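Table 4 source record.
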Amino acid sequence: MNELCGKLESFIDGELAPVDAENFRHHLTRCHACELRMKELLALALLADDALHSTGDGTLFVPKRLQLLKRRRTWMMMVPLALAAGLAAWVLVSRTSSEPVSSELWLGQSPGRTLEARLTYPNADRHRPYEVMRSGGDKPRAMSLRELAKLEEAGDERGIASAYLLRGDAAQARAFLDRLPPSPDQDSDQAVLLLQQGEPEQALALLDRALKQRPQHPQALWNRGLALKALGLSLQAAEAFERVSALKEPGWSEEAARRAAELRQQEQEKRKEWKGAKEACDRMVAGGTPLSQGLAARHPGLSRLCFYDALRAATSTARVDELRPLARQLDAVDGGSHLDEALQRISRADLGARKPLAADYVRLTRGELPPPALDALIVKLREARHDDLLLGTLLFLRDSRQFEEEYRALALGTKDPWFALLAEERQARADIQRGQTPRARTRLTEALRACGTESRFSYRCLELQRNLALVERQLHRPVESRAHALAALERARASREWTKEWRLLQELGQAALFHGDVSLARAYLEETIQRLPERCEDHESAYANLALAFYRTLDFAGAREQLDRAARCGQPPSLARAFVIADLAHTQERRIEDAALLTRGLEALRAVPSRLETAGESAMLRHIEGRFFVEQDRGRGQELLRRAIDEAAPLLGSDVNARKARVYSFTSLILDAARHGEYERALALFTEERGLPRAEHCVLGVTVDDERTALVARDAKGKLLGHYDTDRRERLESVEGLVPDALAEALRPCVTVNVLARPPVLGKPGLLPSDIAWAYQVGPSLEETQGAPGPRLVVADVNAPSELRLPALRAWSPGKEDGAGLTLLKGASATPSQVLRAMRDAAEVQIHAHGVVDPNVVDGSLLVLSPEEQGGRYALTAGDLQGHPLQGRPVVLLAACHAAHSKAYFHETFGLPVAFVESGARAVLAATQEIPDAEASDFFEPVLARIREGLPAARVLRDARQDWLRSRGSPWVRQVLLFE
């Protein structure tokens, strides 16, 4: 029996800490003994409850002192008394009676409700006014175990879950919700649980899934409004509540209408306030009244930005003096006397001589100065030595590489932290334009350290954070990108920077789309459109990314609708819109006019190179063109795709867009070959992409793109087989059944099948039957190690951080053959940095630790090691392996739950196994799901021993898996994968 079983009574009594209760809940869903014991305890609780509360003729007499005992602590003590009285028969009758469940279970005595969300269980969805007690209010009454037992006996798990949700007990509720079959009601109630746990993003995905099946689902619509409100998407939330209001449910309709109106009013007031501040700012720059004290206090960032422009436009000593009170107020906000000192410097200048230059600068800020005049103004300012005006003017250059050193010198010469931060931001932009995006990331990260958690220079710090989010996205690090964008959004909201918030919402939508969260992406992007409905020209990015979001869900008609919305704005297609136009070329949504529209967009992008974020985007433009035309003119399309591959080649090491262009171009070429039955050519493309020799036998190539699937294989005799279809109607989640039975049977005689799976298939379990020896081939084959094994590394007995509350794993014990050549890192020594160092020369690596999947922290999974002495870092991630070559070409065993869990994008699969192989590992064994601690060593040790003997790893794994299933039947071994 697991040690967790001893916590059952404390779990039922609600005495466990929240984290312990959550861990026990997971245990309960897998432990049959605990489940049976829990039912027994609930039945005994019912007996005790009746023993304590029975009165009247012919019923059991219970002494008064027993009635006074606290039931929660003493019901187990009362069980013998109840049984002795012979109440079992009475209980059996009461359980089958038609007596209604008391409204106490649904907190029906209160005139108001304490749960803001809505539940699908009818008894728990009666409308009452929502009440929030400022003091926290009275705690909800404990549930009657007697009534809970009735629901258990009736098998009413939704009712039990609803009762727990009403009391905010998410851990207990989840144990029962997880047992229910999938349905819109199930999704809506699960979303309530997530909202209680502060996870509105995950709740939104479930609610959108529910509404896709039932668009008028009242509880899902209501809860969607709450999720959107929690995300700060006020207008999207208002729209959801308005849809509830339209259903005309008594009570709920009126409350929904009121909530929607309040949300719209709040958003309108925020926009109106910011617009007023911006207009006052523009008037001040033009020579009008300086900003009021109250306005400057509410908008310190915007006010400081406008102060600099107003000072540059000043042409008299009187005007300089007029700005002094504002300067001192803003200096007090950010600390120092930088603005007051700037006033003194300007007052000493020849203000009359700089008057025409100041006038040109004001025209520049209004967008009224043509580019040739801008160049002339820079020359004049440089000659006149008006450094403050020159500093402001240089910022308007689109190419940050122009006068880069001059700008930095001028900025640092002011001794003003505002300009020091701005100089770093501008230089990071120049790094990106030079194709040095990693360098920009380092620069912005270091600059942000000066910001800390303080509110000083919040405007500049939020811009640094926003730019870092954009850089992380360009490097295809969506988790990090989202984290920085959310931090910037928090700063923008705190300082009432309405337009910055608007832009960040748009960028968060793009980050969510990159991360594959289509529901969240659509919510963010639609919010940005609704906040500025009159600015059609500003919605190109939102419409294009919405089109891509619909396309990702295989809703091609929805994608076309978004393209039409963008077209009505009259702008040439952006790169993102051009991509979707090319995507639709192979669907029924293609149009004759798309060719001209696409050509127009690509020409516009190529005409202004500075519009491209990185050098790799040039190769991406070529890919888009080829992707489109390969569907109309094969020869032209194939040539363009080949050119895209060639253009991307020199940039693969430094530019993510180049890597995407290459992968996407191979995807288009493979699908084109398979669609026309050219399977020999398709297989050659699979091997060419990986730099492999021609595959003669026992190989399987797999690629999936949208609704299309292409497979090509050679069996043990070298016979070529292929398959192509366009039957998929939903996004790929599982690959089980993806390979047709006939093709799998043809590969069964193979000693080992090398699977050349491309993203997003690579890394998913169940691609081939478990009785076939196969492995994902990630890179070129390495010669098998023969003879005496090399150095071995074992990482075990890790000191996981106490705050994670992870149970201790079994201690690792060396075998008889272990001795010389074995390095054991355990306890406090098993830190990420020491493990990375020790792995460098090892020929075999075993890591016995906990594996954790947390999409808010990292893509894929992470291994929990012992914390570093400095900083406390404990996680070993796929990203940590970059730059740490494994020179010993080891076989790696990741004996940790979820270690093979990977995040699959269309251009790469990101996770620990692929990262180990790319760093030099010869083979990696890892599981996608949980591994029983008691069975891990028994399964993996013999596998490693046979691989050390030189046997093919795929065959060893297959044989061990089959033997295990026959002898023990534990199904977890089916999802152990091999990467080579």
